[in-house]
Amino acid sequence: MSSLDQSRDFGRESRRPDYRRPVAINPRKRSVPAVVVAFGLVLAAAWLFNVVPVVSAEAKSAKITQLETTLLVSQDGSIDVTEKTTWKFSGGDFSRIRRPLQLNPGQSLVSYSIGEQTESGFVAYTPGEFGTRTPGTYAVSGGGTAYEIEIYFSAASGDVRTFVISYVVSGAVIAYQDVADLKWTWVGKENSAPIDRLAVRAEIPQPGAAEEFRVWGHGPLSGKVTKLSNTEAKWEARSIPPQTLVDGRIVFPSSLVPSVTRLQGNGLDRILAEEKEAADQVNLQRRLAQARQAGGIALVIGSAVLWIFLFLRFGREYRPRSQPVYERDIPSRLPPAIVGYLWNMGGVQPKEVTATLMDCVRRGFLRIEPGGLYDPGIFQRERNDYRFVWTGTPKDPQDQLRPYENRLVALLLSASPQTPGVSTQSAFERMAKSHPARMREFFRSSPRKSKRRGSPPGL
């Protein structure tokens, strides 16, 4: 792996009806599954733009608008770190922030100082009791390789405060026979606040050969690491979510840290192999992210094309080639049951039964007479009753009842067996309520028989 000569990303090494015949046209549109298509568009947008709903458990919130870190490497292998963190508070009052500090075995926290950068200058904080939250103080707990720093202050919603933490850590650099290796975490996984911008600068003791000064960064795919000179490098990242690890690695000649005890053997080849493996993993993640974005775009376009196709195929009203002629009389000789069957797209409803009975009256097979009043039941007003009388003498001597009309007339007259050839509307209704299975069977079988026996040719 070669050294970094320019900016690069983290993890990288540098048919239609004929109006000549009567047809029943369904005025209802065949609906497009718009809900499904719309859901697909929303899902695609969420996939494309990584839209994730965030539900806040409480109104209070704080975020880091900027984190500036400087790191200086000393010849004895220690590092001097200064972190300037700008916080923005909202939704309530705040009095404490925490900064966990995790060291590696062999490293020690030598010294530290904490304060606040104000408009008038730097204000040093003083040591205080852990947990007291006295504004202007701080407390440090832990030891060995794990520390926790607490800074106490008083801030209200809308306040922006900048805190400065400086510390020195010894034993941070590992020296081999050929190179010195420094790995440091800029943002740990324990961080619970989002960070808008991260800027880090690191400097080694003195210049070395350009090819001997190498730097890497690990973290968000949008992060970048840049080698500014033979002694200085910078790391940059934006919009870092909470619990996201961001770290850096610096490799330089071990001769620049003469006070550090060297380990046996060379370390460069192993370091380069480790960073290559890490870069391969990050590049795979980057390709997957790009494939995810391309898939989201394809899904959005595909859903839109599918919606347009379904609308053009099913959603639009049929545009007739000619305007039908308005007729004041019955537009065809089709019986009501057939018209209803076509209108209902293959079904018979009670209104078709009424229309068929009225058609039999019109043709002379039945005669309808007033039948007085009848009480339909509790909570209902009295209604006019009508009597249906079988004549058996149609107006047209050539006219005959169709099979399903015969069945309907027989069913009507069977409602009043005590008066042969005569039935009433009220008796027919009572029979329908008393024998629902018989009525269901009639409606279920009538469509099939109407279609099989009664439909004219061509329909």
Defining key terms:
disordered C terminus, 9-stranded mixed beta sheet, 32% strand, single chain, 20 strands, 459 residues, alpha+beta, disordered N terminus, 4-stranded mixed beta sheet, Immunoglobulin-like, 2 domains
Short description:
The chain is an alpha+beta fold. It contains seven helices and 20 strands. Helices cover 27% and strands 32% of the residues.
Question: What does the model show?
Answer:
The protein has 459 residues and is an alpha+beta fold. Helices cover 27% and strands 32% of the residues. It contains 7 helices and 20 strands. It has helices spanning 34-49, 268-315, 336-343, 350-363, 403-413, 425-434, 436-454; strands at residues 8-9, 61-73, 79-90, 94-102, 108-118, 121-124, 126-127, 137-143, 146-155, 160-170, 174-175, 179-187, 195-203, 214-218, 224-227, 232-240, 246-253, 366-374, 383-390, 422-424. Strand 8 (137-143) and strand 9 (146-155) form a beta hairpin. Helix 1 (34-49) runs antiparallel to helix 2 (268-315) and helix 3 packs antiparallel against helix 4 (350-363). The two termini are 79 Å apart.
- Please trace the helix and strand order, writing H or E for each element: EHEEEEEEEEEEEEEEEEHHHEEHEHH
Cα distance, first to last residue?
79 Å
Structural class of the helices, strands and pairings?
Answer: alpha+beta
The count of DSSP E runs of length 2 or more, i.e. the number of strands, is: 20
CATH topology of the largest domain: Immunoglobulin-like
Secondary structure blueprint with pairings:
Blueprint: E1 8-9, H1 34-49, E2 61-73, E3 79-90, E4 94-102, E5 108-118, E6 121-124, E7 126-127, E8 137-143, E9 146-155, E10 160-170, E11 174-175, E12 179-187, E13 195-203, E14 214-218, E15 224-227, E16 232-240, E17 246-253, H2 268-315, H3 336-343, H4 350-363, E18 366-374, E19 383-390, H5 403-413, E20 422-424, H6 425-434, H7 436-454
Parallel strand pairs: 2-13, 7-8
Antiparallel strand pairs: 1-15, 2-3, 3-10, 4-9, 5-6, 5-10, 8-9, 11-12, 12-17, 13-16, 14-17, 15-16, 18-19, 19-20
Helix pairs in contact: 1-2, 3-4
